[in-house]
């Protein structure tokens, strides 16, 4: 696996002559393609960034590419290709009907959770969000935070593969702290939702 990544990275650098964050010129379109069609995992883009830029800058570049791709795909599906999404993907979205209900109820938090845990492809998350009741501003925040969470987790899992022997202790502890903050904010937010629900029932 590590040799394959090194070969791809070497070919990429030699072919494009790009370095540093300039590789986003090519990897953002790759992320957009993945976000629309999904024929290769986004993890491929993350591994490419990490191998070319190192763990810190690679994760940052992946966050930028993933966030832009997720937002553009959402806009396209919501404002331009709604009929196409319904016609081509609705049969697949039925498989995730319970998550669609979760999106309608929890909005931001459902997107963050789905972006973090690889339960479904990234493109379906964008499609489902586009046809949900979620406001565009809410999706933008959830896409930003959800991509951060998912890419951070993937960085913890992939860094030892790309850089054998590397310690990921700081990444793990900082990620745990990040998750604890999210859990606390979610519990506070969920408590207020339940109070509103009870108020509407009385």
Automatic annotation (TrEMBL):
Alphabetized InterPro entries for the sequence: TMEM64 (IPR015414), VTT_dom (IPR032816)
Primary location recorded for the protein, binned into one broad class: membrane
Superkingdom classification of source: Bacteria
Domain VTT: 40-154
Keywords: Cell membrane, Membrane, Transmembrane, Transmembrane helix
PANTHER family: GOLGI APPARATUS MEMBRANE PROTEIN TVP38-RELATED
Regions crossing the membrane: 20-48, 60-81, 144-166, 172-188
Compartments where located: Cell membrane
Protein name: TVP38/TMEM64 family membrane protein
Membrane topology of this protein: Multi-pass membrane protein
Similarity annotation: Belongs to the TVP38/TMEM64 family.
Entries under Pfam families matching the protein: VTT_dom
């Amino acid at each position: 696996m590590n040799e394959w990544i090194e070969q791809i990275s070497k070919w990429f650098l030699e072919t494009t002559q790009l370095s540093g964050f300039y590789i986003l010129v090519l990897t953002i379109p790759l992320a957009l393609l993945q976000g629309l069609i999904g024929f290769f995992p986004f993890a491929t883009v993350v591994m490419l960034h990490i191998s070319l830029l190192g763990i810190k800058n690679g994760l940052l570049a992946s966050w930028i590419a993933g966030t832009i791709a997720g937002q553009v795909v959402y806009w396209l599906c919501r404002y331009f290709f709604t009929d196409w999404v319904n016609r081509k993907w609705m049969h697949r979205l039925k498989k995730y009907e319970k998550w669609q209900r979760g999106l309608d109820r929890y909005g931001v938090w459902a997107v963050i959770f789905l972006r973090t845990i690889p339960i479904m492809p990234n493109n379906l998350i964008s499609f489902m969000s586009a046809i949900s009741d979620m406001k565009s501003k809410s999706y933008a925040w959830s896409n930003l935070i959800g991509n951060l969470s998912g890419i951070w987790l993937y960085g913890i899992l992939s860094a030892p593969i790309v850089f054998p022997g590397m310690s990921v202790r700081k990444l793990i502890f900082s990620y745990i702290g990040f998750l604890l903050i999210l859990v606390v904010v979610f519990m506070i937010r969920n408590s207020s939702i339940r109070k509103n629900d009870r108020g509407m029932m009385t």
